[in-house]
Amino acid sequence: MFKRTEEQPQQRALLTGQRLRSYAFALLTRRDYSKAELIEKLNRYAQNPEEVKQLVEELSEQNYQSDQRVAELTLASQIRKGKGPKRIKQALKTKQIENDLIADEIHNIDWVEQAYQLKVKKFGEEVEKDPKLKAKQMRFLQYRGFDLDVIMKAIQRRSD
Prior knowledge:
elongated; mainly alpha; WH-like_DNA-bd_sf; cytoplasm; Regulatory protein RecX; 3 domains; Arc Repressor Mutant, subunit A
């Protein structure tokens, strides 16, 4: 509808000091950001990248921003969505968060049970004999990020 022409350059006031801090708090009140995400978001509007890094470190020290919290929320969200460990690690990598932050939580989850519940929800409880349908179940669970040994246990499992 409206076209930007050469005579109308994009004007954007660059933030510094208290205005940058206020913007950071405004972002963090809406949702949790990882350090890398917050730095990237603030750098779009900041005048000085060093000031952004210093601000984000300060917010992290005061626990307004926490990579640990973001990692835990991401883990819980991905599990609710029926994602396996590979997809969860990929989501953390996208947010530029270390897997080490939730390594213990990932290892304590019963992935066979998670995969089985997902399989039951999508395909039912019956253990499939037909190779094509079994392969379809395997592909589905693989896409969701489960390891092959977990998938095999889940699709062979019977409801007792």
